[in-house]
Amino acid sequence: MGEEQFEQQEDRERSPELLQSLRSKATELLLREEWEESIQLYTKFIDLSRIQITNLAGSDPDSIHKLKKSLCLALCNRAEAKARLHHSSEAMRDCDKALEIENTHFKTLLCKGKVLLGLSKYSSALECFKTALLDPQASESVTEYMEKCKKLDFQAKTGAFDLSDWILSGFRGITPELAEFIGSVEIKKSEASGRGLFATKNIVVGALILVTKGVATERGIIGSDESGEKAQMVMWKNFVEEVTKSVRRCDRTRRLVLSLSTGEEEEKLEIPDISLFRPEESSETCRESKQDLDMEKLLSILDVNSLVEDAVSAKVLGKNKEYYGVGLWTLASFINHSCVPNARRVHVGDYAVVHASRDIKAGEEITFAYFDVLSSPLEKRKEMAESWGFSCKCSRCKFESLLSVANQEIREFEMGLERGVDAGNAVYTVEEGMKRWKVKGKDKGLLRASYWGVYEEVYNSERLMRRWGRKVPTMEVVVDSVSDVIGSDERLLKMLVEGMKQKKNGGCSGNIAEMERIMKLGKGVYGKVVSKKKAMKTLLGLE
Ligand SMILES: C[S@@+](CC[C@H](N)C(=O)[O-])C[C@H]1O[C@@H](n2cnc3c(N)ncnc32)[C@H](O)[C@@H]1O
After folding, report:
1. Fewest CB within 10 A of the end CB: N or C in the chain?
2. From the alpha carbon of 338, which atom of ligand 1 is closest?
3. Which of 300, 334, 336 to mutate to test the pocket of ligand 1 (most atoms within 8 A of CB)?
4. Ligand 1 atom 11 nearest Cα
């Protein structure tokens, strides 16, 4: 007999004591949250119990029953430890094996429900908690889990999210947990480059387009000095490590992340079906991936697709101003840039909530601004797009290119701006110029957006308004025409709010139309997650 076989036979002979000791040690490790070590001991316990059950088959039903009961609990506890290590697929497998032994095992149902909840599979999780609730041990926490599943399932199906109460409480307490949601959108080939996200139905301003949880996010408070730069580099390194871990931990995440663009040959990229991004529709759980990871490719993907939370088209709710965060959200990574964007995002905890920043028609591509498109004339935007590694193909860039090629006047005007001409004179020159250049209708908003800096200066200065106020359009007209093309923007909103406050201070009461204009723009900036008027007013500093 070999040494190993001898040891195995010895184990078998003293198995009742061995099993007892393994079980208590594993449980102790579990309670101490030493997950890896407890998994190892539970694995030994599980293997040995199975051998015992086979050996006793047909002879001792009482002992077999007891052994099976302990096996079920061990599988459940190992599942718990695996879940804590984010090995969801293995945890699910252990839960299912435990439930094969006892299909109403309370602790296992609870563990499986929580794993499914973590995978955003809300209705499957609800089924587990419903069965668990029938157990006499069921406490209030099971009902709370059920309520949470129902709420998240409803959000995931309807997109009806509401953060008003959290806002009204001054963002007190933990960040609200959100469901993943995908609205009426599909991924298709884009005229801009590669793939893009498109509306399949009309979407009204503020309506949610998607809510998606980050693959990884990294945050910190970063100063503007040298130490800030260092801190930013450390954050980036940690972020890359977190993404790598998530990708290695789960083959579904890996597949989705690796489907993203590296910025090269986008025309050749496959167009994934939107259903791959719906957790509830995916039959996959998260299996650990054993394949090698092409780090060079992953780094290029992160370069092209990572988003900063405080970007110009984003708003972070519930955090202070110096806060800096970077993250990767797979579905949001299919959204191309446009200088006439129609969407924005709000960041809540690890979730990116993308909503319409103006009305969107069915078939239109969903876009947000990767960089500042208000206050940036064509040449500046070209530079910014270049630093992102692409040349922008949006309709505004095409329009302004054609206009500036034909127009020496615009070049002279821009040179004047660089020299620092009087803002009132500059606004007057643009407005008069547009008449000569035959810029009409919506296109006026495009140029006003490009030179927003001087418009803003004029409307913010009593002196300039006294001098130029009658010769230039009203602030409301300009804000309307700009938001019509570039969607809602915080600076436009601020301008309207300040205008209304000034009127109030001057003894005039704000009229209903003004308030409605502000609320509509507010919806475009924050999205319909702020559904209560009072919460919106709080955000706008009107309460
Ligand atoms: C986050 S990805 C967007 C999705 C990407 N088009 C795809 O197929 O996966 C960013 C990349 O898309 C391309 N892109 C985005 N907006 C663009 C635009 N307005 N014009 C040209 N290329 C654009 C650039 O190659 C950029 O590096």
Report:
1. N
2. 19
3. 336
4. 263
Distance 60 CA to ligand 1 centre (A): 67
Selection from 213, 475, 507 nearest residue 348 by Cα: 213
In the predicted model, is pLDDT for residue 1 greater than 60? no
Q: What's the gap in Å between 437 CA and the centre of ligand 1?
A: 31
Fold of 3-158: 1.25.40
Query: What is the Å distance from ligand 1's center to 332 Cα?
Result: 12
CATH 2.170.270.10 domain locations along the chain:
164-368
- DSSP secondary structure, 170-215, as one string: TS-SSPPP---EE-SEEEEE-SSSSEEEEESS-B-TT-EEEEEE-S
**Residue 322 confidence class, pLDDT cut points 50, 70, 90:** low
What is the length of the chain? 543
Q: CATH second-level architecture of 164-368?
A: Beta Complex (2.170)
Report the C-alpha gap between 260 and 251 in whole angstroms. 15
Average pLDDT over residues 318-347: 91
- Cα of 182 vs centre of ligand 1, distance in Å, is 20
DSSP assignment of 389-426 equals: T-----HHHHHHHHHHHH-HHHHHHHHHHHHT--HHHH
* Higher per-residue pLDDT: 501 or 308: 308
Query: C-alpha angle 29/89/255, rounded to 5°?
Result: 130
Cα–ligand 1 centroid distance for 417 (angstroms): 31
Distance 178 CA to ligand 1 centre (A): 28
- Which residues have C-beta atoms less than 6 Å from ligand 1? 190, 192-196, 260-261, 263, 266, 269, 304-305, 333-334, 336-338, 389-390, 392-394
Indicate which atom in ligand 1 lies nearest the CA of residue 392. 20
Distance CA 490, CA 500 (A): 15
Q: Distance from first CA to last CA of the chain, Å, rounded?
A: 84
pLDDT in tens, 473-506: 999 999 999 999 999 999 999 999 998 888 777 6
442-470 confidence digits (pLDDT tens): 999 999 999 999 999 999 999 999 999 99
Say whether pLDDT at 323 is over 90. no
pLDDT of residue 425: 95
pTM of the complete model: 0.89
Work out the angle between the directed axes of helices 106-118 and 88-101 (0-180°, nearest 10).
Answer: 150
Looking at the chain, the number of H-run helices and the number of E-run strands are 23, 12
CATH 1.25.40.10 domain locations along the chain: 3-158
Name the residue with the closest Cα to ligand 1, atom 15. 336
**Nearest ligand 1 atom to alpha carbon 266:** 8
Q: State the distance from the centre of ligand 1 to the C-alpha of 373, rounded, in angstroms.
A: 16
